[in-house]
Amino acid sequence: MLERPTPPRNAACQILRILTLLAMPVGDRSTTGINTMDHFENIAKTLLERDGYWVFQSFKVQLSPEQKRRIDNSKWSIPRPEIDLLALNVPKSTVIAFEVKSFFDSAGVALADLAADHAVPTGRYKLFTCKRYRDIVFEQLHEDLLRLGMITPAFQIRLGLIAGNGRKGDIDKLREHFIQRQWEFWTPEDVKLRVQKFSSEGYSNDPAVITAKILQR
Question: Angle 85-163-13 (CA atoms, 0-180°, nearest 5)?
């Protein structure tokens, strides 16, 4: 049986892939699956913290049965939403709910997937493509963060995506799509440039930065 060809990747994606793999413990260096994704997410978390955010991983939002019915009667058993990286910017009174996708072993994030408009949550980008779902989740998230004393009522919640790979020809369109909606989008090139920036500023103890310095020699 012929092996499925590996999709072409741009230079930024190639660097991020190497960076992620080298930052992982040797025993975890599978080129596919959860290990690579987890370590790419850790790198994204580090970069957000360097930008001054307070970051929380895998933040779960508990929806009530009534909220689930408001989303759709057929979604009463929907699992509770989990946000990959929840980034708080206190000076700007902003919370960004980031999804983090490495996509190292695929063609990458595609505009068609993120520009879809669903009446009920569908697919892997539910928060991006279903407004009703997003509004209800963010409403509860705001209440949860208030109750935990993490924010004040003035805080606004935005959506964000950090991608390790993107489909050729879609990145610029995706950036415009996100700007129009006041969402945050980090392209593979954005992530690479952030790593390079911090590697030049002397943050020598972080695995991501150490690896970036090695790659730039």
Answer: 135
* Helix axes 188-199 and 11-22, enclosed angle (nearest 10): 60
Per the domain annotation, does 208 fall within a domain? no
Residue 110 within any structural domain of the chain? yes
Helix (H) or strand (E) holding 117: none
CB–CB of 195/212 below 8 Å? yes
Domain containing residue 129: CATH number: 3.40.1350
The reply to whether 40 falls in a domain is: yes
The reported pTM is: 0.79
| Overall domain count for the chain | 1
Range of the domain at 172: 36-188
Residue 41 covered by a domain? yes
* Tokens coding 205: 């103890």
Render each residue's pLDDT in the chain as its tens digit; 217 residues: 333 333 334 555 555 665 655 455 544 544 444 456 667 888 899 899 989 999 999 999 999 989 998 988 776 777 889 999 999 999 999 999 999 988 777 778 889 999 999 998 888 899 999 999 999 999 999 999 999 999 999 999 999 999 988 888 899 999 999 999 999 999 988 988 888 787 776 655 666 555 555 544 4
Beta bridge partners of 89: 94
**CB 112: neighbour CB atoms within 10 A?**
9
d(CA 23, CA 198): 15
